[in-house]
Amino acid sequence: MATSSRYPPHSQEGKGWSWSLAARIASRGGYCTWSSRACMGRNEGAMRCRSHPAPGKAIISPGSSTLVTMQVLDLVFILDTFGDSITSIRISLNGADITAAVMEIPPVLGSTPTEQLTARLLGVGAAQLGPGLHTLSIVVTTPAGTFGNSMTYEVIPNME
Q: Topology of domain 57-156, per CATH?
């Protein structure tokens, strides 16, 4: 069967090349979702297949590192949902849910040229964490599933 992109995938339901492509992607650990984004210039609720092994990707910046108590930095969450909407976010520090506290700051929201979402917390002081090891985690839920990331920070006391 020839693979033509002339028709939106749903117009060839059960017969189209997109359904066999979707099956191949799924068999390799990928998944497919329905999207209202344009398919070959049409906005017809086309099926958008992705070969990504997970429903999304979360990055926390800075990455795991050693900090000193007098250090102040911007903490950034970069979320790639591959176009899916976010249904929930949970941010935790050492296992305790701090989502509400983070949202009260509030974060500066933005995006990257590749449509990743960004949330930047300005001027987070390492002293707020206190000396010792700390694990910061984020868990994001979308219609395609759940994904997240964690970073570990060691805070060393210092005086200036």
A: Immunoglobulin-like (2.60.40)
Task: Tell me the sheet residues that pair with 150.
Answer: 137
In this prediction, residues 3-28 reach a mean pLDDT of 38
- Write down the residue that tokens 């958008």 correspond to: 48
pLDDT (tens digit per residue) in 47-85? 444 455 578 999 999 999 999 999 999 999 999 998 888
For the chain, what are the domain ranges? 10-50, 57-156
CA pair distance 81, 70, nearest whole angstrom = 34
Q: Is the pTM of this model over 0.85?
A: no
Task: Select from 1, 8, 83, 96 the least CA-distant residue to 45.
Answer: 8
What distance in Å separates the CA atoms of residue 98 and residue 112, rounded to the nearest whole number? Answer: 25
